[in-house]
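Data deposition worksheet. Section B asks for the primary sequence of the deposited chain exactly as it was used as input, without tags or linkers unless they were present during the calculation. Section C holds the resulting structure in token form. Section D is free text for depositor observations; keep each observation to a single sentence. Incomplete worksheets are returned to the depositor.
Section A, Depositor: J.P.
Section B:
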Amino acid sequence: MIRYNQTLYYFFLLGISTYVPWFFFMNAQTYWDFKLRNVTLDNLKIDKKNETLLQGYYTSYMSIASAIPFSLFLIINVFLCKWVSTKIRAIVTQLLVIILFIITTIFVQINTDNWQIGFLIITLSTLAGLNALGSTFAGTMFGVVGHFPSKYISSFSQGQAVSGIFAAIFQILSLWLSTGPIATGLMYFLIGDFIIIFAFISYIFLEKQEFFKYHMKEEVTIKNSDKSVDDTPSSGDNNSVSYMKILVKIWPYGLAMFLTFFITYSIYPVINTRVESEAPRTTEWGDKYFLSVGTFLMFSIGEYVGCLLSRYSSLLDGKPWFSLKSRVISTQTIVLVLLIITTLFIYINTDGWQEYFFFFTLLLAFLINAFSTIFYGALVTITGLFSPNYITAYSAGQALSGIITTLIQILSLWIGMTHETSAFIYFMIGNVGILCSILAYILLEKQKFFKSHVYKHQNIQKKKINTGDVEETKIEYKKIFKIIWPHGLSMFLLYGVTYCVYPSINVLIKSQMAPSPNEWSDKYFTPVATYLSFNCGDYFGRLVAGYFLWPNKKYMLVLITLLRILFIPTFMICNIKSEINILPILIDNDIIYTFLVFLFSTSNGYMCNILYQHVPKIVELQDEEVAMGFLGVFLGLGIAIGSGISVPIVNMLE
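Section C:
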């Protein structure tokens, strides 16, 4: 299993190396602007107001010098594959790319002010050579990964997208550290040299793996199953390639690929780099970060997310496509990266671009929640394969995270930390927590007890196929949905009501001691009476559900979750004082309010755990994974719609 994962990582790294020259050349905009600046005005500064002709057209020249050789050598590579072996093409092209990239690195320290046009010609020629070699290598590697299952192709494709993310992050880091253009260029190209050399070494190791050799020879074995196959290429008709026949078969895919890249590179980066922020150039966002974040980073992240989402297409065949392990580790790793980015922004001065920082934060929150949802769905699926005790442990852990967060908030208020310090502690604890969860899952996966539960339904399904009980492994989504829809409806109502009230309405409720100034009403009321009370109740409810599996009737589950709607008007008549609130305040006692929050959250935690434990019992063993996945979908819909309904209610109250 380890060697299969190593192959995935090797293809991922090789995918990164294919686009490193292009992205690093493109993102080193500060360096190129410096090299092509108007040297008669200032030898140190890059003056955008006096942009030279070379600076203005460099991006267009770069795109042309990249696109033409890249496309031309992709075509040539189709014919080269017949005459030149895969190993020679991969190794020779990578060696030449390393040499050209080292030459580019050396030019960073050479003064080219007196021969800028000559330097530009050498740079574009080098770039053309890099893209010609890079396209040959990319075409070769796509031919290689085509011999492997789809997840290896996806890994290579994801690596190509990640190279753009790396380049954009390095660009943002260099702007943040305020490194000079020479230091920036040197950093880019040295990192590029290191990545390409590392990828070159990885390919050599990859070629030696038996797993790699098996897949590379598999097609030959299939085609010549009735003939003896030796290590020498066959001659005559067996070695002929019908290019026209292949083209007729794949032309719709080729046309789709052509249109995709034609539209993309008609806009990016030539037009995108000319777009300016609406923020003044005097602000850090408008002057430094807009292009790096708004164009390069967003494009690369979007491309990577697209590569990940493309793997959902196999769901159309009704077959599982993405292992639980991959879902858990990949999503948590991405969430960790996004949370680290959020942590870095704590000490960046955003006063001059608050609106953009706000929207960027919302984007980060959106991505974190999107990947967390996938992670949550995978974990719900896994716990559904275990006994109720383990489901309760997972469910209780979810509630405990809220208690820990609230206690940290209360502690920071008590100590009197600054906003930056408290935020830094929050996010650092979050980073450490996610990192620990990734390590915990890796260790968990190695346990025999874990493997026996997670994979037993797969083994049973395989046994049925082997004995002829089933003809294929298609998942009957409609059948599973019909069985679990009452539980799904209950989960939807449960979380719909919860997020309709908490936290949007709860945070509007004030202490009975307000507005008189005191520490309880000003500082501690909301963290203790709302957040801590809710999370403790949620935790308590999940623990109790581990001992009392009631109700067990479908109609009772739906009825109880429907009755929780009564909590909405109950909290609306609590102590919410505003000019537009026309509802009477009937509950203004802090103790009664705290108890109501505790009761409200206890019912949430209790019913959530009950539903978790019921669903695996009412479906067949091989359907547990999909059934729990459906339950997660209903939960997410409840959160989304409940949060949406809370908006007009809040507007009515405040």
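Section D:
The radius of gyration is 30 Å.
The first helix runs from residue 2 to 27.
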